[in-house]
UniProtKB/TrEMBL annotation:
The keyword Magnesium does not apply. Residues 1-43 are annotated as: Disordered. Belongs to the class I-like SAM-binding methyltransferase superfamily. RNA M5U methyltransferase family. Residues 36-96 form the TRAM domain. This is TRAM domain-containing protein. Keywords: 4Fe-4S, Iron, Iron-sulfur, Metal-binding, Methyltransferase, S-adenosyl-L-methionine, Transferase. Residues 1-11 have a biased composition (Basic residues). The active site is at 434, 434 (nucleophile). The lineage of its organism: Bacteria, Pseudomonadati, Pseudomonadota, Gammaproteobacteria, Oceanospirillales. It comes from Halomonas piscis. S-adenosyl-L-methionine binds at residues 308, 337, 358, 406.
Length: 483
């Protein structure tokens, strides 16, 4: 019998939305009191039946209540302790495991189980990927959507892939500085000096960062730290709402040390309108996007800009969207939630006439600069796409033949409602989503409004976590020429 750690794991929230039996968007009922005093399942033995969308095992207590069990796999018989009770389900962790699933592996990272950065490292890689495809399929099925039997998985390496990260910084009761990610579902910071998924250049910065913050006169003034590594350069941004004058020299000395390793350092200071100051030469942060049939594109990026976390999987994802849509000269494209031009630039490079819409003013400027940098002519415009009527006006104004939609986790419900009801609308739509539950909701609306699902792929952008990207091609069956 495998004995596991006695410590109760931190409480977790559903990372990926859509717990097995909680409809997406519904708030779970409030937690009851002390874990020890709760539930029939406070210490019981159960068999894990399946995985929830967030990767936790799902079992049933003796009284028939659903249990979500952290780090438990289907087929495993586990003694569990409940650490959170809800009205319709309990959340539990494993005290003892009677047997191991054949899909269980030794987690590659020593911090697994404590650090909230990764939650699937106990699953074999193929099992993680099968689970992601199954989660997309199941969430779509709940909305009445049937997906193709074979769904492509876009994936590359399983380690050293993450090129950006936001690290928390904390000082504990003994004055020790902690630098790392939050524990799952908790504000507690887990101090790390290695990371299995960060690109090596960023992982190597963890220990020196902690050292320099530990040496500050006012380490508590450091809010968080952002790391980004691109083909053009690597940078650390330190958020300090209220900097301490006596620490300025220490940061400068650290910036000099980093410069020798090709890493730039910036301080982001001030409360309401934070000011970014590079301590030394500003880096030439830029990613290169190499896609089949196109000359490599260079996209400048700045700290704080949205940048897809995994460069290799992003290239596959953009390539697949371009292959599906096949932009060509004379076609009009609308790219909504365009960021710094990840999809707009390739579509423009293929000859399409592109209108790119993004809400963040600095990113709109960067997108326009990126178009100029690559000798491309496109229209970059700022709009808040959550404002009712905005999408309808853009659709009218551009008369787009194709639409690219890549919203944040909340999805694009209002935009899809507009598309479903529109008389004149794009014949093709590529929806790229980081939340399969909101994707399923939105696509159900589109299919009810006369679009059909043409292609689906899942991208393992965040290996070892329950997160994923899903790509769908939708085609308007009302348009002439649609079969
Ligand atoms: C998932 S990112 C995708 C960015 C880009 N398509 C890419 O692949 O890099 C979503 C983008 O939507 C932007 N965004 C979020 N909410 C928005 C809103 N209400 N209106 C317009 N843009 C918004 C964010 O700034 C971000 O750049």
């Amino acid at each position: 019998m495998a004995m596991l750690g006695k410590k109760r794991p931190p409480r977790r929230q559903s990372g990926i939305s859509g717990l097995a039996r909680v409809p997406h968007g519904e708030k779970a009922p409030p937690e009851s009191q002390a874990p020890e005093a709760q539930s029939d399942a406070a210490a019981s033995t159960v068999t894990v039946e399946r995985l929830a969308h967030d990767g936790r095992g799902v079992a049933r207590s003796a009284a028939g209540k659903t249990l979500f069990v952290t780090q438990a796999l289907p087929g495993e018989r586990v003694e569990v302790a409940v650490h959170r009770t809800r009205k319709r389900f309990d959340e539990a962790h494993v005290k003892r495991r009677a047997n191991d699933s054949p899909r269980r592996v030794t987690p590659p990272c020593a911090y697994f189980g404590r650090c909230g950065g990764c939650d699937l490292q106990h699953m074999a890689l193929d099992a993680q990927r099968e689970h992601k495809v199954a989660a997309v399929r199941e969430l779509c099925a709940r909305q009445g959507l049937e997906l193709p039997a074979d769904m492509e998985m876009l994936a590359t390496r399983a380690e050293d892939y993450r090129r950006r990260a936001r690290l928390g910084v904390n000082v504990d009761g003994q004055g020790r500085v902690l630098v790392g990610f939050r524990a799952a579902g908790s504000q507690r910071l887990v101090d790390i000096d290695r990371c299995h998924v960060l690109v090596p250049k960023l992982a190597a910065l963890l220990a020196p960062l902690r050292e320099v913050i530990q040496a500050l006169e006012a380490p508590r003034r450091v809010g968080h730290v952002e790391l980004v590594d691109t083909a053009g350069g690597c940078a650390i941004t330190v958020r300090q709402p209220r900097p301490h004058a006596n620490d300025a020299e220490r940061w400068r000395a650290f910036a000099d040390r980093l410069a020798a390793q090709g890493v730039a350092l910036a301080l982001l200071e001030g409360r309401d309108a934070p000011r970014l100051e590079w301590l030394g030469e500003p880096p030439a942060l830029a990613e290169t996007l190499a896609l089949p049939g196109l000359a490599p594109l260079e996209l400048g990026v700045a700290p704080g800009d949205f940048l897809q976390a995994n460069a290799a999987v992003n290239a596959q994802m953009v390539a697949r969207v371009m292959e599906w849509l096949a932009p060509s000269p004379g076609e009009r494209y609308l790219d909504l939630f365009a960021g710094i031009g990840n999809f707009s630039l390739p579509a423009a490079a293929a000859g399409a006439s592109v209108t790119a819409v993004e809400g963040h003013p600095a990113m709109v400027e960067r997108l326009a600069a990126n178009a100029r940098r690559n000798g491309l002519d496109l229209r970059a415009t700022r709009a808040d796409l959550n404002v009712p009527g905005t999408a309808a006006a853009l659709l009218d104004e551009t008369a787009a033949d194709a639409l690219i939609l890549d919203p944040p986790r909340a999805g694009a419900e209002a935009i899809c409602r507009t598309l479903a009801d529109a008389v004149s609308r794009p014949a093709q739509l590529a929806y790229v989503s980081c939340d399969p539950a909101t994707l399923a909701r939105d696509v159900a609306r589109l299919t009810a409004g006369g679009y059909r699902i043409g292609q689906v792929a899942v991208a393992d952008m965040f290996v070892h976590t329950a997160h994923m990207e899903t790509l769908m091609l939708l085609e308007d069956i009302r348009q002439p020429g649609a079969s």
